[in-house]
Amino acid sequence: MTKFLEFERPIADLEGKIEELRHLANTGDLNIAEEVSRLQTKADRLLRQAYSNLTPWQKVQVARHPDRPKFFDYLDILVDNFIPLSGDRVFAEDCAIIGGLGQFMDQTVVVMGQQKGHDTETRIKHNFGMAKPEGYRKAKRLMELADHFKLPVISFVDTAGAYPGIEAEERGQAEAIAKCIETCLKIKVPLISLVIGEGGSGGAIAIAAANAVLMLEHSIYSVISPEGCASILWRSASKAPEAAEAQRLTAQDLYKLGIIDKIIPEPVGGAHRFKNDMAKQVKEEIGKTLRPLLNLDGEKLLSLRREKFINMGNKTL
User: Fold this and answer.
1) How far is the C-alpha of 111 from the C-alpha of 78, rounded, in Å?
2) HSE value, Cβ hemisphere, 13 Å, CA-based, for 293
3) Full-prediction pTM beyond 0.90?
4) pLDDT value, residue 101
5) Which stretches of the chain score pLDDT less than 70?
């Protein structure tokens, strides 16, 4: 059953009425097909209207929707024969970032992504997608492996940020993220990154300093969460909607600013309503982006990636 967000309440009410009518039709001889069709048409219209004009704060809510497809949902459809590679060879395995080898459209690739989890058990296991230093050191190791064997890298970003706990700081969180970004910028193989939900702070850019950065239509990408920003600027997390507006964290604003390279449209109502369709569309878009990069030599890929990030900040809205 679809979980509705606060701004979807009118749609939720209509869907509830539709379910009640269908239940009545199943328990008697009532013919209510016409009324159900009328209500469904109205609900579909409201859904299209709502998602055609989302505010930045509403996009934040959609990006965090509990049913929004996670990394594993895409991995199952995009990559064949996936072989996970675990551990950072220094401290431990970190389940917040999963990575390994697989086949993407008959091309062997290194694929990695931040996995949030779908329920309480998996969210705890994957630490809500918030990696510790060992997660970023694993990502660095996998990118170096890809560089050694001349394999493209595809990364999926979905994290509120790097894990902020004391133990992460004690093990060198900042250094691990910095080294991961450095590795992104020095490998000589194609690197494509896709923001599928939240792209939070250094925890996101650590695996997203790529040749091409793609974003789903209702994803977000920012240096800090709206709540964190509001707490700093206004001393109140209740100002998060205003912070989201000021941060320019939507895919549409980031594309205009030249921070990302492409926006992938989502089905009406968000990716969580049609997960398989969304995954198939993502596969097609990654394929289109990867093909021309495969024809470039290592030095060209490296220079294009570095120039891309050096030139950021030249555009204004």
Assistant:
1) 10
2) 25
3) yes
4) 98
5) 1-2, 25-31, 316-317
The sign one gets for the Cα dihedral 95, 101, 103, 106 is positive
Per-residue confidence (pLDDT) for residue 64, from 0 to 100 = 95
Which burial class, exposed, middle or buried, applies to 1 when counting CB atoms under 10 A from its CB (0-12, 13-18, 19+)? exposed
Q: How far is it, in rounded angstroms, from Cα 189 to Cα 297?
A: 8
Give the position of tokens 């709540």: 227
Chain segment 289-313, per-residue pLDDT in tens? 999 999 999 999 999 999 999 888 7
Which residues are CB-contacts of 26 (< 8 A; sequence separation ≥ 6)? none
The proportion of the chain whose per-residue pLDDT surpasses 90, expressed as a percent, equals 81
Alpha-carbon separation of residue 292 from 162, 283, 295, 306 (angstroms): 32, 15, 6, 18
Q: How far apart are CA 301 and CA 296, in angstroms?
A: 6
What would the two tokens of residue 291 be?
Answer: 């093909």
Nearest to 84 by CA among 108, 105, 97, 101: 101
Phi then psi for residue 104, to 5 deg, are -115, 110
Instruction: Please state, in angstroms and rounded to a whole number, the distance separating the CA atoms of residues 57 and 26.
Output: 40
